[in-house]
Amino acid sequence: MRHQNMLRLSLLCFCFVALQASAQDAPSGSSRSAKKVAKRERINQMLKAEEEGAMNFRKQWMMGPRLNSDGWSAYFEWGKQKTAYKANWYLIEFGEKKAINERKSSTFASGLFLGRPLVYGKQNVFFQTKFGFGQQYLIGGKSNKNGVAVMAVYGGGLSLGLLKPYYIEKFDPRSNEVTDIRWQNNQSFNDTLFLDQSTQATSSGLFKGLNEIKIRPGVFAKTGLRFDWARFNETITALECGVNVEYYPQEIAIMVNNGTRRLFANFYVSLNFGRRR
Hints:
The chain is of the alpha+beta class. It is built from two helices and 13 strands, in the order H-E-E-E-E-E-E-E-E-E-H-E-E-E-E. It folds into two domains: 1-51; 55-276, Porin. An eight-stranded antiparallel β-barrel has the order 1-2-3-6-7-11-12-13. Strands 9-8-10 form a three-stranded antiparallel sheet, with helices on one face.
């Protein structure tokens, strides 16, 4: 009798343990099933988006030259996709801003070029390094591999302006030798000599005045359209055009007779080359 009772007790314990194990496995199995359903749904959404022309990627990068209506620049941009139609981008850009009336001239003698070309009346060289953030929004995707994707881009950020004095090499009658001079805005003899076009002169070169650079921080905002005609979504070959606006709290002078400015606006066109993955 005792053995029968022990056997019954063992069977009851085994059944209890089995029920507990099955109860613990049930949520795990349902959790795995829910994950499979969610994954299948995401895949279906991605396939549907691709059929509608959307570009699916995790990250992308691009770089290229940019021609502005008031200068030039080169940039590097990288981004992450947030949805099938929207991606965030981060920008580093370096360029130079020029005045609309800048004209380079060269000195010639007997058909031979003498010295570096210069811009008469140029007071400062104005460089900018931009750090920006924005978004890219897909307006129209590629209907096929030979189509063109159209995207709106918008954003802004910080612009670190670098103002470098513009030096020229010119013969100084006071010392009877060629010297480097710049615009000083103090109505001195150097200023008169600086603007005197009857005396031959050349540019002192890009590196002259680097130790006198002044920092001019500011902000910028941009918006435009990007047209990507690359055959495959993994590569980027695009043309971008748009408008850029910059503001600097301190006055910026580029040419002697142009006055100073704080607000700059330009149109730009850029070529974009990169990859997605």
